[in-house]
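User: I'm putting together notes for a lab meeting next week and I want to include a structural view of one of the chains we've been expressing. I don't have a solved structure, so I'd like a prediction I can at least talk through. The sequence is below, exactly as it appears in our construct file.
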Amino acid sequence: MQLIDRESYHKAFIDGVIIMCEVMCQSSVQNGSLDNKSPESLFVVPSIFGSIQVDTDFEVASATICFNQTTYLKAMERVLESTCDTLTEDLKDGVAEMMNIIFGHAKKELNAKGQTIKLAIPKIISDINNSALEDLKINTSTIPFQSDFGTFHLLIGEPIKKEITHV
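Assistant: Thanks for the context. Below is the predicted structure for the 167-residue chain, given as structure tokens.
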């Protein structure tokens, strides 16, 4: 049984964000340091999240990218090479694509280190409420990123061991 190494896990997702920004948004980013403050104390309540469950044979975790509306629209302008003034249903799909790139890189990197990360589909969350923010506080590390289109955050839910029952 090989559990996820926290440092490798964080690095894989941070590297995934950097690659996503270079590929999708034609932008370089700088990541800040890991900050274990509660998520809502670090940023304006985000307008849109892209979240994915990270599942192995023995643990489950999560990764979530968070944007306020202004930053997200500026990022999507880079992606689409056109003006984006309103967060439409079509534009919301972009955050899932971002999370696919981030997760794809992290999965490849972690699998190369002996993990068995299962496939996953990102979830888009754009109707933020207090319950969603409360869920993000549980065992979550927050990593801010600064780009030329604005500041955004990666929330990393720490791996939790699965209960394994024998039949």
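A couple of points you could mention at the meeting. The radius of gyration is 16 Å. The first strand starts at residue 29 and ends at 31.

User: Perfect, that's what I needed.
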